Amino acid sequence: MSKLSFFIVLVLISASATAQEQSHIDAARELLEVMHADQAIQQSHDQIYPQLAGMVDQMGISEDQRPTFEKYLEKRVAVMKEEMNWEKMEPHILKAYVDVYSEEELRELIEFYASPVGQKFIAKMPELMQATMQMTQEMLQDFIPKLQMVQEELQAELQQQATE
Predict the structure, then answer these.
(1) Residue 65 phi/psi, 5° resolution?
(2) Is 31 in contact with 110 (CB distance < 8 Å)?
(3) 84 neighbors 41 (Cβ within 8 angstroms)
């Protein structure tokens, strides 16, 4: 095989691989569109403030400290919204989907999420996530004191070892 023929074969193989990669990325992008991933990110942003504001009681913030806490809470939420917006996250999410799913799997997921039951699943996801988060917070309330006791035991033992 001449050098020119070999070069042409390499170029054709490279072009074919690039087209397949782009098709895979396009499938991931289509799935994210069908799943309304950009809207899900926005909805999660909308839920951040109330969730963090609910930490006031858990953190023991006094009424005098509440305005300062809320000021910094608003700053935190603003930074999160700025840094974790769809435009910044989309390329990373696309890469994750391409890395995890084959193009065929992405096409099957598109078929499901484009279906009426798939769209219903997507529509109810925020409600499901809220219920799950509420349950998780309730469970945390039960075992955080146990974790704190373990932490205190650890600190006491480490302090005792340091004095020996």
Answers:
(1) -85, -15
(2) yes
(3) yes
* Rg, Å, the chain Cα set: 25
C-beta atoms surrounding 89 within 10 Å: 14
Q: What's the pLDDT tens digit per position in 70-107? A: 888 888 888 888 888 889 889 999 999 999 999 999 99
Buried b or exposed e, range 40-65, using 16+ CB within 10 angstroms: bbeeeeeeebeebeeebeeeeeeeee
Residue 60 in contact with residue 148, Cβ under 8 Å? no
Cβ within 8 Å of residue 65, ≥6 positions away: none
The whole model's pTM is what?
Answer: 0.65
Question: CA 162 → CA 147, 151, 153, 155, distances in Å?
Answer: 22, 16, 14, 10
CB–CB of 93/32 below 8 Å? yes
Q: What letter does residue 64 receive in the DSSP assignment? A: T
Can you tell me the distance from the alpha carbon of 35 to that of 122, in angstroms, rounded to the nearest whole number? 6
Rounded to the nearest 5°, which phi and psi values hold at 35? -80, -5
